[in-house]
Amino acid sequence: MKYKESNPERTLVGYPGSEPISNEDLLELECDILVPSALENVITEKNADRINTKIIVELANGPTTPGADEILFGNGIMVLPDILANAGGVTVSCYEWQQNLNGTRWSAQKVDRMLEETARISASRVFLTAKKNGVDNRLAAHILAMHRIADEMKEPHLNNGDSYD
């Protein structure tokens, strides 16, 4: 931190004993969990075969292209897609909307508990759907979404959030 603060560019560029690395090379380093969290389309068909990780957790919007998804799935790399991994903000916004509609205010602890439960259930449903259908997690999330939309269109008053296959 001292070096960064003293550097006029406010970066670690030039830190003694360090070597620069490109963003492309950084993505291809061996690691257990890769977390693309800034830009979209950084994992593509051109570099997917060189991604050397067990798990990818997408915190950026759309960091993996559809073609790369196929390659990663074929290589046995688990992708926790952005639609699931960074859905917390949207989920909590829905909780806020519900509170506003009802004129209530929930504690931060209640919101955290609800978010944790929602995330756990959603992830479990995605993983089970992926396994059952032999597809990657992103496609499983889309399958679940389409089932929910279809169910709501058929019987909007009966949709109770049960699991979908």
What does this structure look like?
- With about 160 residues, this protein is mainly α.
- The chain has two domains: about 15-80, NAD(P)-binding Rossmann-like Domain (Rossmann fold, 3-Layer(aba) Sandwich); about 85-165.
- The protein has seven helices and three strands; from the N terminus they run ααββαβαααα.
- It has helices spanning about 1-5, 25, 65-75, 80-85, 90-100, 110-135, 135-155, and strands at about 35, 55, 80.
- Strands 1-2-3 form a three-stranded parallel β-sheet.
- Helix 5 crosses helix 6 (about 110-135) and helix 6 crosses helix 7.
- The protein is flat and about 65 Å long.
- The model has no long low-confidence stretch (mean pLDDT about 90).
Number of domains: 2
Strand segment tally: 3
Radius of gyration: 20 Å
Number of helices: 7
Structural class by sheet pairing and helices: mainly alpha
Strand proportion: under 5%
The average pLDDT is: 92
Poorly predicted tracts of residues = none
List the helices and strands and how they pair.
Elements: H1 2-6, H2 23-27, E1 33-34, E2 55-57, H3 66-74, E3 78-80, H4 82-85, H5 88-102, H6 108-133, H7 137-154
Parallel strand pairs: 1-2, 2-3
Helix pairs in contact: 5-6, 6-7
Keywords:
mainly alpha, Rossmann fold, 165 residues, single chain, three-stranded parallel β-sheet, 2 domains
